[in-house]
Amino acid sequence: MSEMFTRGCHDSTSPLWYAAFSLDQPLAQGNDVSTNSAAATAKPLTKKELQKFKELLEEKRRAVVDRARQTLTENMMLDPSDLPDEMDLASAEYTQSFEFRLRGRDKSLLSKLDLAIKKIDDGTFGNCESCDEPIGKKRLEARPETSLCIRCKEDQEREERTLG
To answer: What is the pTM of this model?
Structure first.
C-alpha cells in the first residue's frame, strides 16, 4: 500500500483511485494519477462550450444568492416565544449557527463563481492558475468554478495535509 502513496496516488479513498485501480493491485507503471495527460492533450474550449459553462456558473450563482436571501428572511431571527425552554433555545441557536457557517462557505463559493465568470469574459477560463496548463473538460464539467487542474489541486491538498 505504501508504494501507492509514493507513486502519486495520495488517497486510496479518492474516486480517481477507484476509477484507475483495483483495491488489491499495486500501482502499475505509468498509471500515476497525478499526471495531467488529459489536460495536456485538451483542445481549447469552443465558444459554445464557454457559453454553456457561463450559463452553468450563472445558475449556480443564482442558487447561492437565493439560499443567502432565504437564510436572511427565514433563519435570521429566533423568537423566544416559540422556544419554551433552554434546550429548544440551544438547539435553535446551534441550527442558526450551522446555517450561518454554511452561508460563509457559500460566500467563498460566490467569489469563485464570480471569478470564473470573469475569466470566461476575459478569455482565461479553463487554464490552471498554478501551471497555466489547460484544465481537463471533465474536471470543468464537475466543478466549473475550479481554478486548478487536477494535478495542481492534488499537490495543494497534499501540501495542506502535510502542513496540518
So the answer is: 0.64
Say if residue 20's pLDDT is above 50.
Answer: no
User: Does residue 41 sit within a domain?
Assistant: no
Range of the domain at 22: 2-33
Q: Is the pLDDT reported for residue 88 higher than 60?
A: yes
Q: Which amino acid is at 143?
A: R
Do 60 and 7 share a structural domain? no
Assess if residue 38 is contained within a domain.
Answer: no
Shortest CA distance to 35 belongs to which of 158, 155, 137?
155
- The percentage of the chain sitting over the pLDDT mark of 70, rounded to a whole number, equals 68
